[in-house]
Design a protein that fits this description.
Distance between the termini: 105 Å
Oligomer: single chain
Number of domains: 4
Helix content: 40-55%
Number of strands: 18
Largest sheet: 5 strands, parallel
Structural class: alpha/beta
Number of helices: 21
Length: 537
């Protein structure tokens, strides 16, 4: 005999009660049948709704069926559509066959119930007697769900134990078979695919000849070879792709090709036939281990200034930090990820000197941003200080080797402007000096004034927080704007210095804004510069 629906559903008896039916089945087995488990669940739910027709219950025509999806998570397409419909307010009552059809996770179920309560939607399980409007009903629901979660976890443990036992016996337990193998018709075992096996043998032979993973990938692509082509259980084909450095590395490090399997650090004899002799595999591993230190991306304990910010203009992919050792010296550079993975011929940019591009970016950043650390980095930890300033101010950097340009885009809080920086040869750049400190501070003050004028920041206190300096220090910098216009212009265009004394110290210049008369300021300035007084204007 059908049970009485929950009391919170009865309050809508004056109008129609729109009922959505949700069904789920964990596996895909039997779903191809004309009448499957999902159909049976929906039929039972529709019969129950029909029995409550006198209270205004109607079944919505839209189907929320998840076939082949686990109840242990919420990554289910029909469930996501159901939640969207609930949020839109188109459902008054959610009907399921059993509680565990909706979820087997206490946390996920609590989230779903929160959505139901927020929208004032009822929840009904047609085979289980409880009422969510009372405390005892909610307790009953949580107990039922606890057992559902326990059952799911118990099934998972049994499955893991079974797979572990199969792995120790050398069986294939599922997944995408590696290149060179196919799964046997009955499953549980790998069989050699001779056509692909020749490619695998070629990979090992080429590496022993050339001692370079990237060179092997380039040669395989030249020969027209591709990675594994396979078809999923749902019939979706996956075409083979050109070989990359990572794809070759996976093959060279795969113990499966020796006829063995590895499970939790232990090696067991496999039921499949090996493609590569164990001795050859061991030789390749020794060579890979010896070169691993050379092919690492970054230096030991070093942080790269532009990591995560620098992109190749031609390929649109990121440029990663790398290095090489020659003659006892370490040379750092940034390498296009496509060139690293597919070979040098696939990218005209290839690489750029890390020292060269970092100095070019740093010189520009410290003249256009209101960061005290950018105006003059501390003597200690200069790389950390520069990296902090660059990451706070810069959104993206692209390197165009063809035009010899570095394009720098600032973050929105710094104006969002774009700058093109010519990248001269490193040897030429080292012969240049640097701008005087007072020139950089004057440019910083002008930049901060522009941020205030445009409303990007509201006051000196906000500028100080943005620049990671104290409020008094920001006032010192901004007081430079009280200098006579002639002095400001001269300070901004002072010539570069090459390691000698500063033309005028910052301490001496900071005294000038306190002088009210611009004429008196000019006289003091000319004395500091060792020049004759300029004619009065």
């Amino acid at each position: 005999m059908p049970r009485k629906p929950p009391q919170q559903v009865e309050r809508t008896a004056a109008g129609p009660v729109r009922c959505a039916i949700y069904t789920r089945k964990s596996s895909e087995e039997g779903l191809e049948q004309p009448f499957n488990s999902l159909d049976a669940q929906r039929e039972a739910a529709e019969a129950y709704i029909a029995s409550q027709r006198h209270q205004g219950w109607i079944a919505l025509p839209e189907r929320y069926d998840d076939g082949g999806y686990s109840g242990g998570n919420m990554e289910r397409p029909a469930l996501q559509r159901l939640l969207a419909s609930l949020q839109a307010g188109g459902i008054d009552c959610l009907v399921v066959y059993k509680v565990d059809r909706l979820s087997r996770s206490l946390l996920d179920f609590a989230r779903i119930m929160g959505v139901l309560e927020q929208r004032g939607t009822s929840f009904v399980s047609i085979t289980q007697q409880f009422n969510t409007t009372s405390s005892i009903g909610r307790l009953t629901l949580n107990v039922l769900l606890s057992f559902a979660q326990f059952e799911r976890e118990l099934i998972s443990e049994r499955t893991r134990d079974k797979m572990s036992a199969a792995r120790r016996k050398g069986k294939w337990v599922g997944g995408i078979p590696p290149l060179g193998y196919d799964v046997a018709a009955g499953g549980g075992r790998l069989v050699v695919n001779e056509g692909e096996a020749e490619v695998v043998r070629k990979v090992f032979t080429l590496y022993q000849e050339r001692r370079s993973v990237l060179a092997v990938a380039e040669e395989l692509n030249r020969l027209g070879r591709t990675t594994k082509q396979w078809t999923s259980q749902r019939g979706r084909p996956h075409a083979g792709m050109p070989f990359s450095k990572n794809a070759v590395s996976v093959i060279l490090n795969n113990l499966t090709y020796t006829g063995q399997v590895r499970y939790r650090g232990e090696t067991y004899a496999g039921e499949h036939v090996g493609i590569v002799p164990p001795g050859q595999w061991e030789q390749v591993q020794g060579s890979l281990q010896s070169r691993r230190g050379i092919e690492r991306k970054g230096g030991r304990g070093e942080t790269s200034l532009l990591s995560g910010l620098l992109y190749c203009a031609h390929c649109g992919v990121s440029m990663v930090a790398s290095y090489t050792n020659k003659g006892g010296r370490r040379y750092r550079y940034y390498l296009c990820l496509r060139a690293q993975q597919r070979g040098w011929k696939n990218c005209p940019t290839k690489s750029v000197s890390a020292v060269q591009i970092e100095e070019a970016v740093w010189e520009r950043v410290r003249t256009i941003t209101p960061l005290e650390s950018a105006a003059e980095p501390r003597a200690a930890e200069p790389r950390e200080c520069a990296g902090e300033s660059v990451r706070q101010a810069v959104e993206r950097i692209t390197y165009d080797r063809a035009q010899k340009l570095v394009r720098l885009t600032l973050r929105k809080e710094f104006g969002g402007e774009e700058f093109a920086i010519p990248l001269v040869r490193l040897g030429h750049q080292e012969k240049l000096g640097r701008l005087p400190r007072i020139t950089r501070l004057m440019a910083l003050a002008v930049r901060c004034q522009e941020l205030l004028r445009t409303g990007t920041v509201q006051n000196y206190a906000e500028l100080a927080r943005l620049g990671i300096v104290s409020r008094p220090r920001m006032t010192q910098v901004m007081n430079l704007l009280n200098l006579a216009p002639e002095i400001q212009e001269e300070v901004l265009f002072l010539p570069e210095v090459e390691g000698g004394r500063e033309p005028v110290s910052e301490r001496a210049l900071r005294r000038l804004p306190g002088v009210i008369s611009w004429k008196d300021q000019l006289e003091i300035w000319n004395q500091l510069r060792g020049q004759r007084p300029s004619p009065a204007v």
